[in-house]
Write a structure and sequence with these properties.
2 domains; 13 helices; seven-stranded mixed β-sheet; 392 residues; Rossmann fold; elongated; alpha/beta; six-stranded mixed β-sheet; Maf protein; single chain; 33% helix; 21% strand
Length: 392
């Protein structure tokens, strides 16, 4: 085999200079491979003016900690994008202006002691306020040593970082990757949907990204019937719930999806576009309302639609830092500041959960219309549907 080829710290000097000239602030995350890019960057004088932090969550448990739970796949476009958004958010947390922050993440499945059933590959995602980009590079099995694959992974990371300051490289891999004839880098890119750049930056709290052309928008928030959810994916159960809720409230339903989450990274632009595309011809709002109390701020006096699992959490002290007093205050506010709740049963741990049988405070119960199992029952969940599909 040929000696490992890849970037050196000398190669990183002009890249860091270009990034510094743009005022860029970078957080880099690598898991499974690509870690040599960190040493190339940090061994270069001036790196501290550009690189804010480098993280290597190598074990799956470490990745889960950063991403808020187990992943469908740890080497996929989605995992890389989630890590890149987390890196972008870390950059902002560490003082970078949103427009200057760059989050870059590499996930890789490389040669190891035991032969891998799947392909060897490197996936690098970059998150900026201007867009989300993913580069995927399949590697020919048994063609390189682990060290050589690591060198290619590091080169791809630095190349994608260079593309943030050189538009000509945005969708063209650098010659320095030393690829074999059949190896090709594929690219995926998404610009922010209208209004979502400000939403990600935190300068807006809500934006309507899809609408029902057959109906006018509600004049006030109090006239809205809002159905919050992650909709990953939107399925038949959601749509049936919306139809029934509209009949009960005698008003059409607006779906709401928060791009932020209490314990997970924000959605990237590829994910925003994919989830928004499910709502063609229906009204959808993207918001920054990660908690239910924040949703009330965005849609005061609205009627809210939800499943039994979400409903049970509204009064659970565990979701208020363990404080019984905070949970009681939240319940009183929900009862006083919403137009009511329409609650559906759902499958949970293999059994259908009837929301009318849940032990909730009287104030919450009095504000709730419970949809009976006779009116609605569909044992389906977004999680089960995702498990049937190959990871993106």
């Amino acid at each position: 085999m040929a000696a490992p080829q890849g970037p050196t710290s000398a190669d990183a000097a002009p890249l860091l200079a270009a990034l510094e000239a743009r005022g860029a602030k970078v957080v880099l995350i690598a898991t499974g491979g690509g870690t040599q890019a960190i040493s190339h960057l940090l061994a270069t004088p001036g790196a501290s003016g550009v690189v804010l932090e480098c993280l290597v969550p190598y074990a799956r448990a470490a990745v889960d900690r950063w991403l808020g739970g187990p992943q469908e796949s740890y080497c996929s476009s989605r995992a890389a994008r989630r890590l890149a958004v987390m890196a972008w958010q870390r950059a902002c947390l560490l003082g970078a202006e949103p427009a200057a922050a760059i989050g870059i993440a590499a996930t890789a499945s490389l040669r190891s002691r035991a032969a891998k059933r799947g392909p060897h590959r490197v996936i690098v995602a970059v998150q900026r306020l201007e867009g989300t980009t993913v580069a995927t590079l399949p590697l020919r099995k048994e063609a390189r040593s682990r060290a050589e694959e690591e060198a290619v992974a590091a080169a791809l990371v630095l190349d994608r970082l260079a593309a943030t300051v050189d538009a000509r490289r945005a969708a063209a891999a650098a010659v320095g990757l030393s690829l074999l004839p059949e190896e090709t880098v594929s690219f995926e890119h998404a610009d922010p949907p209208p209004g979502c750049r400000d939403l990600l930056a935190g300068t807006r709290t809500a934006v309507q990204v899809a609408a029902d052309p057959a109906r006018p928008a509600a004049a006030t928030a109090a006239e809205k019937v809002v159905f919050p959810g992650s909709f990953d994916p939107l399925h038949e159960g959601h749509l049936r719930m919306a139809v029934i809720a509209a009949e009960i409230a005698e008003r059409p339903v607006d779906f709401e999806l928060s791009i932020t989450n209490v314990d997970k990274p924000a959605l990237d632009y590829v994910e925003m576009a994919a989830r928004t595309a499910q709502f063609a011809g229906r009204s959808l709002w993207l918001t920054r309302a990660a908690t239910f109390l924040e949703k009330i701020d965005v849609f005061p006096r609205a009627t809210f639609v939800m499943g039994a699992d979400t409903y049970a959490r509204l009064a659970d002290p565990r979701y208020y830092g363990g404080s019984v007093e905070a949970a009681d205050r939240a319940v009183r506010r929900i009862a006083a500041e919403t137009g009511g709740l329409i609650v559906f049963g759902r499958e949970r741990d293999g059994q259908f959960e009837d929301p009318s049988r849940l032990d909730v405070p009287a104030a919450l119960r009095e504000a709730t219309y419970f949809v009976s199992p006779r009116e609605f029952r569909l044992d389906i969940s977004s999680t089960s549907l995702r498990r049937r599909e190959p990871p993106a």
